[in-house]
Design goal:
It contains three helices and five strands; from the N terminus they run βαααββββ. The protein has 91 residues and is an alpha+beta fold. The chain has a single domain, classed as YaeB-like fold. A five-stranded mixed beta sheet has the order 1-5-4-3-2. β3 and β4 form a beta hairpin.
Length: 91
């Protein structure tokens, strides 16, 4: 079963400004989601798949590099992932 990845317009603009290795990492992440689903993300420890808390309690995060994260929502009934942002994680 293939998943659908929906990117908000702001995400597409953000991606074009990011370094090439982050774009490549995002592309790899996106292809994993499309062809293998979100459960595959949980299996790959380097993504640090985690559910967010607080005002983002329905959102998830995956690590693209030590500094960059992709923030997304999962709609299981529609087999869809909605990418909300790709940004530099602030510690």
């Amino acid at each position: 079963m293939t998943w659908v990845v929906v990117e908000q317009k702001s995400v597409i603009k953000e991606l074009n400004k990011l370094p090439g290795h982050i774009q490549a990492s995002y592309s790899y992440w996106r292809n994993l989601v499309i062809f293998d689903g979100i459960n595959k993300l949980r299996e790959i420890k380097s993504f640090h798949f985690e559910k967010l808390k607080g005002r983002r309690n329905k959102q998830f995060s995956c690590r693209l590099s030590k500094s960059y994260r992709v923030i997304f929502e999962v709609v299981v009934k529609e087999v869809k992932v909605i990418v909300l942002e790709v940004n530099k994680h602030e510690y």
